[in-house]
């Protein structure tokens, strides 16, 4: 078996709209392509021996053991690899349950899809599944040592990519509230929400957290001083820098018992409490100084009481937990060491902050504390007696948490809220020592020991005892108070042709509202009036660039097939999704071999429209209109046919639509018609002579109206959309060059050639075509392009792209010439003898066509490089007069340099 390709999907995709985290593996079964599992001797037995837990997989026929029944009866190895990869992740502590296996159009080559929690682990599990099945098919077994190593590696991948328990808690709350999130490429920050409404977190720091508050909280002595000056009960203490200051400091705080801790420590590192002798003080000083970057040590009076952590969010006390130091309780039989092993077997305990609780580790501090209590590691602890293993109560050293939220005294609630505001933290963890949290601190000699920025949440979310508290909910109530939204409107456009034009027009319409609009197209990513990034930016990364920008108020996103196939959508949901059309293009790439499969791929966009949003569908295209069956959102149709039956039925039921009727672009809702504008007054439509442009305009207007934009803004945008090379480069750019015209367009598939022909065939003079196409199409597609070229041009120059996309020189051009010859032979060509020649170099071909163009002719250039073709046109001798074709008329106007007149096919 051979893995041909592995890719990772991270959004709604061809395989699943709901499951966004998928690994897609293209697998060649090679010598096992013609064998089912029942035909491979010993395979069933070897698989059971390696992974007996596969018995829990249901699969078809839908009951426990169903998958193994399929294996016994006979199934393809690709299907087995899918289940093995899922089970390996399950065994490594990452439960996943979704998978698909489908054979491609090439016999023996399969697409295997598996869900993942951790991206690296998912890709590893896919490869491990292949290794295991290959081994069992070949030898009848899979070595136990290799399985152990697989599971170890998978766990390491998961641990290395873990967000941390507090961040994970916040992410889960975001998902529960439908708030989108994405990791940022700096300092472990997470973005919550989109565009102008976004917020950011780093662990439990938020973008509302003030740097002065954080700095003050990190200065433990400064915190204590400012709280003391505000009348808050804090421990008596002082800061020292050298050992010879220790004795005086002890006397200054009132003598023993004392606490020693680093000035800038955290997580209980370097702290020694309840010190009652000079020897212990010296040792505690060394420990604290070693843990301090500043080599400064705090000496404080030790206060007797229980350790509590109070969480304050946005000035409100939201949770209180008592932290109990790591300990074991004797049973009269086990030694201390055995009791620790028993405690560490708790599945809730892990290393560091990975789990709800942390494993207890043995070190010198632990051994010293045991000795003080009269125990050693081999001591048997009497039944019911508690032995402490840590002096501090931090969860990171093995402590446990007991929820005390409902026990706190009202005066303490007031005090803790005030403390967080004094320090200046929106999210604060206040460490309190008091014998009884249900009594005012002053009455029981309680004190506030520390105030922490970025406090951990796990003790509140999953306490060892008591009620879990939804502390993340309080954070989101602060960051996104009702009715504030976390999202910006997302209007997304897909289709085979017309995407760029429709996206640009839709963005232009939205701009009429004064909102800052971010949009992506095949020629660049824009925010407002400015280009952010040039190039083909129609994939998920470009979408996320827009959605992560804090100035964007509305996103308009051109969404191409390649990005969906490669990685999925760059967003989970959109407000409006537009599908313009589906026609044969790029077939045979990415295992999309039919237009029906292409339609399913395009439908991912509208299936991701939120229920209250709109899917805008082309009612004239059956492949598009049928997508309504899979859409959960509201439906709006557009049509060039005012008598379209689907539209009539839809609007009769109160539905929304846009049609071209009596020369007008009109909106239909129920039984009323709202006319937007006459097509002859819309520059984009070439005075109503370019039907495909009218369809694009209908789609854009309908999407804008469905989003709630005013008809006045839509009408204004239609009349003010100045089609130009700057706005729509390479899309039906029409130039007057002296006594002839040149038309530049990026038509590259049969559907776009036909649309182009609807305009070109109306030209009164000779029509000259400089044609070609990208090499990543099927042979039959190039032949079709040749036939279509012969039907619209009097003379044709066939050229070839520099980037042939894997094709040998001349192959594409010769196939196009073959199509021209077939059209002439069949009598479908424009003339019985269409002139055509082959000039592979695009520059030479374009220059020859322009040099030899007769008066009144139209030279149509279908370039590989739009910019290069524009340069060739613009280097022609500038003329004093240009003719702008607009509103169906020609009118002269003076200009100093060549300016194009542009209409846009898409």
Summary, kept brief:
The chain has 906 residues and is of the alpha/beta class. Helices cover 34% and strands 23% of the residues.
Helix content: 25-40%
Could you give the count of β-strands?
Answer: 41
* Lateral arrangement of strands in the main beta sheet: 25-24-23-26-22-27-28-29-30-31-32
Percent of residues in β-strands: 15-25%
Number of helices: 29
**Multimeric state:** single chain
What is the arithmetic mean of pLDDT?
A: 90
Main pleated-sheet profile: 11 strands, mixed
Q: How far apart are the termini? A: 43 Å
Radius of gyration (Å): 35 Å
Write down the overall geometry. elongated
Task: Return residue spans where pLDDT drops below 50 for at least 5 consecutive residues.
Answer: 878-906
SSE arrangement:
Elements: E1 2-9, E2 22-28, H1 43-50, H2 66-73, H3 77-91, E3 99-103, E4 109-115, H4 119-139, H5 144-160, H6 165-176, E5 181-183, E6 190-192, E7 199-202, E8 205-206, H7 211-218, H8 220-229, E9 237-240, H9 246-252, E10 258-262, E11 272-275, H10 278-290, E12 297-301, E13 306-313, E14 316-324, E15 327-329, H11 336-344, E16 349-350, E17 357-358, H12 364-372, E18 386-388, E19 400-403, H13 410-423, E20 427-434, H14 441-444, E21 447-453, H15 458-461, H16 471-479, E22 490-494, H17 499-511, E23 517-521, E24 524-527, E25 530-534, H18 540-547, E26 554-558, H19 561-567, E27 574-579, H20 595-607, E28 609-618, H21 622-625, E29 634-639, H22 645-652, E30 656-661, E31 664-669, E32 672-678, H23 691-706, H24 711-720, E33 733-737, E34 740-744, H25 750-760, E35 767-771, H26 779-792, E36 795-798, H27 811-826, E37 835-838, H28 842-851, E38 858-861, H29 866-874, E39 881-886, E40 889-894, E41 901-902
Helix pairs in contact: 3-4, 4-5, 6-16, 17-23, 17-24, 25-26, 26-27, 28-29
